[in-house]
C-alpha cells in the first residue's frame, strides 16, 4: 500500500550542521494518543540504541507519562521498566468496568465516565520521583485550562497531579482542580507542541507521534466517529502549520507510526504490536541519511508537492514562535508548583 506523509523526517542541515556542539540542544516532544502511546516506548528505545539522547523532554497526555518515565531514568533499563508497564496495562486498570447500564448514566449526569484514581495510582506506581523537577532530564508537561483553553505548562509539581492533569481526557476522566482552575488533557489545545521546544531553545527536535499525519482512514459511519475524525483533522492541520513555520536554525525529525492510525485512543489491546511497530519504524527513519520526498495525500488539489517544498525552504526565524508565549506557565524549580504569568 502506498503511504502518504507530509514529511517523515526533516533535517535542515544547511545551518544546523554548523552549530557548535556546546550550543546544540536536543528536545524530545511526545504527543498524545491514549492507548496508542505504546508506540512511543519503542521509539524511545530506538533513539537510545542509535545514541540519541535528549537534553530536555516535553510531553502532553500519554506522552507526558512516557516522557516522565524516560526523563527519570533515560537508559535502556529505564525503558524496559516502561515497556513492562505497557505490557501489563489493560483498559480496566485505569478505566474500571461499571455495572451494566451505569456507564450511560454517568455519561448523562456525572462530570466524567470514569474516576481518576486508576490513572493516578498508575502514575504513583511507575514514577519514582516526588516532584517532576527532580527528573534527571528537565521535563515540561502540558495541560489545558478547561474554562479558557489556555496552555498551562508544568516544570515542577507532584507527578500524581501534574501528569494526571495532562492526560485527563474531558468527559472520560474528571478534570484536576488546581488554583481555581479546571485542568484537562493538554492535547485538546496543542497535541504536538514543537513550538514549545523552539521556545526552549531546541536546535534538534524529535517529534514522537502516536499515528501519522496522513492516515487514510475509512469514512466515519457513526456520529461519534465523525466527531473524533474532525478533532484528528484539526490536530493534523495545527501540526502542519507548526512545521511550516519552523525556524531554519532548527532541525526536526518526525517519528510516526502508521499502524497506530486506525486504532482507537481507548483501545489498549494492541500495545505489543504498537511497541514493536514504533521501534521498527523509528529505526528505519533514523537510518535514513537522505532528505525524504514531500508527498501530499490524495486528492492532490489541496496542496501540490511544489507548494509544500516552498513552505519548508523558508529561511529565517519566525517571530511568533520565538517570542515569549503570552500564557500561564508553571515554572521549573526546586520549590513546589507555582503559577506565574507568562
Automatic annotation (TrEMBL):
<feature type="active site" description="Nucleophile">
    <location>
        <position position="61"/>
    </location>
</feature>
<feature type="region of interest" description="Disordered">
    <location>
        <begin position="288"/>
        <end position="315"/>
    </location>
</feature>
<dbReference type="GO" id="GO:0016042">
    <property type="term" value="P:lipid catabolic process"/>
</dbReference>
<dbReference type="GO" id="GO:0016787">
    <property type="term" value="F:hydrolase activity"/>
</dbReference>
<feature type="short sequence motif" description="GXSXG">
    <location>
        <begin position="59"/>
        <end position="63"/>
    </location>
</feature>
<keyword id="KW-0443">Lipid metabolism</keyword>
<dbReference type="InterPro" id="IPR050301">
    <property type="entry name" value="NTE"/>
</dbReference>
<keyword id="KW-0378">Hydrolase</keyword>
<dbReference type="InterPro" id="IPR016035">
    <property type="entry name" value="Acyl_Trfase/lysoPLipase"/>
</dbReference>
<feature type="short sequence motif" description="DGA/G">
    <location>
        <begin position="185"/>
        <end position="187"/>
    </location>
</feature>
<feature type="domain" description="PNPLA">
    <location>
        <begin position="28"/>
        <end position="198"/>
    </location>
</feature>
<feature type="active site" description="Proton acceptor">
    <location>
        <position position="185"/>
    </location>
</feature>
<feature type="short sequence motif" description="GXGXXG">
    <location>
        <begin position="32"/>
        <end position="37"/>
    </location>
</feature>
<keyword id="KW-0442">Lipid degradation</keyword>
<dbReference type="Pfam" id="PF01734">
    <property type="entry name" value="Patatin"/>
</dbReference>
<feature type="region of interest" description="Disordered">
    <location>
        <begin position="323"/>
        <end position="342"/>
    </location>
</feature>
<dbReference type="InterPro" id="IPR002641">
    <property type="entry name" value="PNPLA_dom"/>
</dbReference>
<protein>
    <submittedName>
        <fullName>NTE family protein</fullName>
    </submittedName>
</protein>
Amino acid at each position: 500500500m502506498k503511504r502518504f506523509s507530509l514529511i517523515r523526517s526533516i533535517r535542515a542541515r544547511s545551518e544546523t550542521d554548523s552549530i557548535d556542539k556546546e550550543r546544540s540542544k536536543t528536545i524530545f516532544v511526545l504527543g498524545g494518543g491514549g492507548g496508542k502511546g505504546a508506540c512511543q516506548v519503542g521509539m524511545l528505545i530506538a533513539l537510545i540504541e542509535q545514541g540519541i539522547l535528549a537534553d530536555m523532554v516535553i510531553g502532553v497526555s500519554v506522552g507526558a507519562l512516557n516522557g516522565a518515565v524516560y526523563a527519570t531514568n533515560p537508559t535502556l533499563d529505564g525503558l524496559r521498566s516502561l515497556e513492562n508497564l505497557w505490557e501489563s496495562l489493560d483498559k480496566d486498570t485505569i478505566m474500571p468496568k461499571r455495572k451494566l447500564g451505569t456507564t450511560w448514566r454517568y455519561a448523562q449526569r456525572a462530570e466524567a465516565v470514569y474516576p481518576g484514581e486508576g490513572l493516578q495510582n498508575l502514575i504513583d506506581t511507575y514514577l519514582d520521583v516526588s516532584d517532576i523537577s527532580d527528573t534527571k532530564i528537565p521535563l515540561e508537561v502540558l495541560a489545558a485550562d478547561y474554562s479558557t483553553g489556555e496552555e498551562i505548562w508544568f516544570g515542577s509539581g507532584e507527578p500524581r497531579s501534574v501528569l494526571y492533569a495532562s492526560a485527563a481526557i474531558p468527559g472520560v476522566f474528571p478534570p484536576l482542580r488546581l488554583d481555581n482552575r479546571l485542568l484537562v488533557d493538554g492535547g485538546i489545545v496543542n497535541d504536538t507542541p514543537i513550538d514549545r521546544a523552539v521556545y526552549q531553545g531546541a536546535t534538534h527536535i524529535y517529534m514522537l507521534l502516536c499515528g501519522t499525519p496522513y492516515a487514510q482512514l475509512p469514512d466515519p459511519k457513526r456520529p461519534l466517529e465523525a466527531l473524533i475524525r474532525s478533532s484528528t483533522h484539526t490536530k493534523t492541520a495545527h501540526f502542519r502549520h507548526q512545521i511550516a513555520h519552523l525556524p531554519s536554525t532548527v532541525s526536526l525529525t518526525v517519528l510516526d507510526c502508521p499502524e497506530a492510525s486506525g486504532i482507537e485512543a481507548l483501545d489498549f489491546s494492541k500495545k505489543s504490536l504498537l511497541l514493536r511497530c514504533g521501534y521498527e519504524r523509528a529505526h528505519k527513519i533514523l537510518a535514513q541519511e537522505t532528505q525524504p520526498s514531500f508527498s501530499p495525500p490524495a486528492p492532490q488539489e489541496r496542496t501540490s508537492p511544489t507548494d509544500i517544498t516552498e513552505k519548508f525552504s523558508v529561511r529565517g526565524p519566525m517571530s511568533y514562535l520565538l517570542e515569549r508565549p503570552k500564557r500561564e506557565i508553571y515554572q521549573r524549580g526546586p520549590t513546589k508548583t507555582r503559577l506565574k504569568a507568562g
